[in-house]
Amino acid sequence: MSIETSAKRSSVLRRSAQVAALTGGLVLATSCSSGSETSDVAASSSAATACDPGVETATGYCNIVQFETDVFANYENASGITGRLEIGRAVMVLCHVPEQTIGSGEGGWYKLDPSEGELGGDFAPANNFENGDQAGVPINRAFDPDIRDCAPEEIHR
After folding, report:
1. Angle in degrees, CA 139, 146, 25, rounded to 5
2. CB 44 within 8 A of CB 52
3. Domain boundaries, the chain
C-alpha cells in the first residue's frame, strides 16, 4: 500500500468516525480500495461505497454526502424526487451544474454518475456534500471546484 493510499484511507477512517459520532453511529459504511487490497469500515448501514472519496475517475468524481439530501429528476425547479442520499455515503458525481435554483443553495447542483444506478443522471444539491473540505472542519465550500462543470448536452437528457 502506498503512503498516499494509506493517508487517504486514514482520512476516510477519521471522517467516518466523525460522521458516526455526529449521527449517533447511524448510516455509514465505507470501503477503500487500493489495487487488490480492500479495507472496510462499517457502522450500522450495510451499503458499501464503490468509490474512493476525493478521487477523480474517467467518468466522475467521488464525493461524500455531508447532509442527508433528496435527489431530483429536475434541478431547474427541484422536482421529481427520485431518491435520497444518506449521510456518509460516497457518491460518484459526473459533473457540476453551477446554476443556483430552488433547493440548490449557492452551490448549484451535482449530476450523479450513471454508476449510481437508479439515481444516476439525476441531481443533488452540491452544498450537501463535503466538497473536499477537511474532516472535522465546518462547511467551507458550497461545491467542490475540482469537479468539472457539466457541458450543456450532459445536463439535459
Report:
1. 40
2. no
3. 3-155
Q: Taking a C-beta distance cutoff of 8 angstroms, is the pair 54, 65 a contact?
A: no
Residue pLDDT tens, the chain, 157 long? 444 433 444 444 344 444 333 433 333 333 333 333 333 333 223 244 468 887 888 888 999 999 999 999 999 999 999 999 999 999 999 999 998 777 677 889 999 999 999 999 999 999 999 998 876 677 678 999 999 999 999 987 6
Using CA atoms of 113, 62, 46, 2 in order, give the dihedral in degrees to the nearest 10. Answer: 140
Q: Cα dist. 137→16, 121, 130, 140 in Å?
A: 14, 30, 10, 8
Q: What pTM value is reported for the model?
A: 0.67
